[in-house]
């Protein structure tokens, strides 16, 4: 479970950054909307997967509600899933 959650967190963070740094400029500056569409679909799937896995992992580890809040908020901020991986998930290995 830990490995799956860590991989999902990293991929969600990468897809979020790719959406903002690569595909949005392509959409608006180069008038190429297709990459934004596909990366957006992938990010949406990874976002939902991350949130579901965060809740399941939180319940499995019996962590505090504050830690669940940190996990969920991390999915909304750029680079935050990398922080969660480093601070909360990596030490559990």
Q: Could you characterize what this model shows?
A:
Its main location: membrane. Keywords: Cell membrane, Membrane, Transmembrane, Transmembrane helix. This is Integral membrane protein. It is found in: Cell membrane. The protein is mostly helical and 93 residues long. Helix content is 83%, strand content 0%. α1 packs antiparallel against α2, α1 runs antiparallel to α4 and α3 packs antiparallel against α4. It is elongated, with a radius of gyration of 14 Å.
Rg: 14 Å
Q: Spans of 5+ residues with little confidence (pLDDT < 50)? A: none
Assembly context of the chains? single chain
Rounded average pLDDT = 88
Distance between the termini: 11 Å
Q: What sequence of helices (H) and strands (E) makes up the elements?
A: HHHH
Instruction: Estimate the helix proportion, in percent.
Output: over 70%
Structural class: mainly alpha
Total tally of structural domains = 1
Strand content: under 5%
Compute the number of helices: 4
What's the total count of β strands? 0
What spatial form do the alpha-carbon principal axes imply?
A: elongated
The major β-sheet equals:
none
């Amino acid at each position: 479970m830990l490995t799956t959650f860590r991989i999902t967190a990293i991929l969600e963070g990468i897809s979020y950054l790719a959406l903002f740094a690569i595909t949005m400029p392509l959409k608006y500056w180069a008038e190429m909307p297709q990459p934004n569409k596909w990366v957006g679909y992938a990010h949406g799937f990874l976002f939902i997967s991350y949130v579901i896995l965060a809740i399941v992992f939180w319940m499995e580890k019996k962590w505090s509600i504050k830690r669940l809040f940190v996990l969920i908020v991390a999915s909304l901020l750029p680079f935050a899933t990398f922080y969660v991986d480093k601070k909360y998930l990596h030490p559990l290995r």
